[in-house]
């Protein structure tokens, strides 16, 4: 129970660390084609995962992994909006 609570709290903190990066990428994605789009997305995902891993790695592995997957799914759903904007720019 404590592991679940704490891992979710750390997930929220990790998502907060990349929030500004995603907002910036979304604005850029809607205004121009980004040649480094993939590297920007990779950097954002790695930043969140690294932050989460460093703080939540010691908790129960099943809970740690479950919450990590939820966090990654949330990040991908946000990045999809940027990807979609880039796709529209390329058409």
Please give a handful of descriptors for the protein shown.
mainly alpha; 91 residues; elongated; 86% helix; 3 helices; single chain
Structural features, described:
This protein has 91 residues and is mostly helical. It has one domain (2-90). 86% of the residues lie in helices and 0% in strands. The protein contains three helices and no strands. The longest helix has 30 residues, at 61-90. It is elongated. The model has no long low-confidence stretch (mean pLDDT 97).
What's this model, at a glance?
With 91 residues, the protein is mainly α. It is 86% helix and 0% strand.
List the helices and strands and how they pair.
Blueprint: H1 2-29, H2 37-56, H3 61-90
Helix pairs in contact: 1-2, 1-3, 2-3
What gap, in angstroms, lies between the N and C termini?
48 Å
Helix content: over 70%
Whole-number tally of structural domains? 1
Mean pLDDT, to the nearest integer, reads 97
Compute the gyration radius: what is it? 15 Å
One letter per element, helices H and strands E, the order comes to HHH
The number of distinct helices, counting runs of at least 4 residues, comes to: 3
Strand content: under 5%
Shape: elongated
Low-pLDDT stretches are: none
Structural class: mainly alpha
Reported for the largest beta sheet, the result is: none
Number of strands: 0
